[in-house]
Design a protein that fits this description.
heterodimer, A: 269 residues, alpha/beta, Rossmann fold, six-stranded mixed sheet, 10 helices, B: 246 residues
Chain lengths: 269, 246
């Protein structure tokens, strides 16, 4: 579990994160959503220690990350896997070498053991026959899957995904979302996903935090989001007329189901 | 003021390299990789430059020495000392600042911009130790070797040019080479080589490691790294000469 308490981060005079608190639970896909510049990437970078917050605390299973020394952080980071927006694969290494890298660095396993584990995780992300390809030779979706495989190869307790769907077509994005979700449930990881992809929100949003101008504007799940009264959140989620209409239809449908009084056809009459 | 900011951050980067390696085998592998990259990658240019510099030194020294009183073998002495003291370490390292320096800066810059350095940090790896240290150590191992090679080839180029241009025979050149040879000059040349190797590797590593932005900034960082390295080499060259030459 990750607990965030009053995190604040500014760059010069610009406050990017303003007193954000949240509880990120294991076995759940915790989504941080918001417009570009709302502070979600900075929040994630604070969580993993790439940025130091100005104030506030971050607890990983009760231990304050902000107070840890470099050695303690190193130890904790071996339990963290992260998928970057651009996948951040090492250009000079093949897919196999990329995934094997954390094992090379942090285990004393033999090459055969490492190869077995690499093939296991590559199978898990549905990526066979790409072991000897370089990142430049594979598609964006495949790169994301390699990124996920590298992130989970050491069985992390915490999985961070920064914009996992950026630059992907809707179908591939859905595959990546489902993969992240399955891994979260299967390994009971505390998964934190930064996204502004509405499909992701609806598909895997067990716990959603909506950020607006550095502040937490709304918190809930994908069932509650549709009933949110927050105008800012509604404007963000249902930005287009099409989505607004879809939301109205869905609400009517849900109300129908909840009240069990009328069916969809009646409501539309 | 900006200079001190950069200098302070540079010193902190150097200090940050000295931590216990996460896995010695991986660090060793990276060090060997860097030795090969820097050494073999620069071998061709070093060979070409050294031979021609030596050859030109012989021809131009002969052109300037018009006195019939002076023996021709003195040309070899001048070429030998010039090549060992100045051309082999300084000129080779200025060229290497361009070849190796820009490569180091752009490689690290690209890793920074594409978040590969962040990915390593998240894994719990000290990126300064894993990425910067092997480059500096690799340069410290390989560049003095390249300088020695440059000195040998420079003298050989001068010897060949002397014969080909009918300036002096091999026997006269060899006689000159062995006359008044000061072994200290070789030590001085190696001191320069180690100093310049550190400059060539650490300054571009600094520029690359802390780059911010995109492709344009990587290019700028690479150019700044080469310019700064060249200036620092020339400055260090003067300081070392002033301090170490009696």
């Amino acid at each position: 579990m990750i607990e965030i308490k009053n995190i604040r981060k500014s760059f010069g005079d610009v406050v990017v994160i303003d007193s954000v608190s949240a509880m990120l639970e294991p076995g759940k896909a915790n989504l941080i959503i918001g417009t570009s510049g709302s502070g979600k990437t900075v929040l994630m970078k604070c969580l993993v220690g790439l940025f130091e917050p100005d104030s506030g605390e971050i607890y990983y299973d009760g231990k304050d990350f902000t107070m840890m020394d470099e050695e303690e952080r190193k130890e904790l980071r071996q339990q963290i896997g992260m998928l970057f927006q651009g996948s951040a694969l090492f250009d000079s290494m093949t897919v196999e070498q990329n995934v094997m890298f954390p094992l090379d660095m942090f285990t004393q396993w033999t090459f055969t053991q490492k190869l077995k584990r690499v093939n296991e995780v590559l199978d898990r992300v549905n990526l066979q026959d790409a072991n000897h390809k370089f990142p430049a030779e594979i598609s964006g979706g495949m790169k994301k899957r390699v990124g996920i495989a590298r992130a989970i190869v050491l069985n992390p307790k915490y999985l961070f995904c920064d914009e996992p769907n950026s630059g992907l077509d809707p179908q591939t994005a859905l595959v990546i979302d489902k993969l992240i979700y399955q891994i979260t449930k299967e390994f009971n990881t505390t998964t934190v996903v930064n996204t502004h992809d509405m499909n992701s929100v609806m598909e895997i949003g067990d716990h959603i935090i909506y950020m607006y101008q550095g502040k937490k504007e709304w918190e809930g799940n994908n069932k509650e989001i549709i009933f949110s009264k927050s105008k800012l959140l509604n404007d963000f989620i249902f930005a287009s007329e099409f989505l607004q209409d879809a939301k109205d239809m869905r609400m009517l449908e849900l109300k129908g189901k909840i009240s069990n009084e009328r069916n969809m056809d009646d409501l539309l009459k | 003021m900006l200079f001190f900011t950069h200098f302070g951050r540079y010193l902190l980067m150097i200090k940050g390299m000295f931590t216990k390696p996460e896995n010695m085998k991986m660090y060793w592998k990276e060090l060997m990789h860097q030795c090969a990259e820097i050494g073999i990658g620069s071998l061709g240019i070093v060979v070409i430059i050294s031979v021609f510099i030596g050859a030109v030194s012989t021809v131009q020294t002969a052109y300037q020495l018009v006195s019939p009183v002076l023996p021709k073998s003195i040309i070899a002495q001048i070429v030998r000392d010039t090549v060992i003291l100045e051309f082999a370490p300084t000129l080779t390292c200025i060229v290497l600042a361009g070849v190796v320096g820009s490569k180091i800066a752009s490689e690290l810059g690209n890793m920074r911009v594409s978040e590969q350095i962040d990915a390593l940090e998240i894994m719990g790896i000290n990126t300064k130790a894993y990425l910067v240290m092997p480059k500096i150590l690799g340069a410290l191992i390989v560049i003095p070797m390249l300088v020695i090679l440059a000195a040998v080839l420079g003298v050989w180029g001068g010897r060949m040019a002397g014969t080909l241009a009918h300036i002096l025979s091999h026997a006269e050149f060899d006689k000159g080479l062995l006359t008044n040879f000061v072994p200290y000059n070789v030590s001085f040349s190696l001191v320069k080589a180690y100093t310049f190797a550190f400059i060539i590797s650490s300054i571009p590593a600094y520029y690359g490691y802390f780059v911010k932005g995109g492709a344009l900034e990587i290019g700028r960082a690479s150019t700044s790294a080469v310019v700064s390295s060249c200036i620092m080499i020339l400055f260090a060259d003067y300081v070392l000469a002033a301090i170490l030459l009696p």
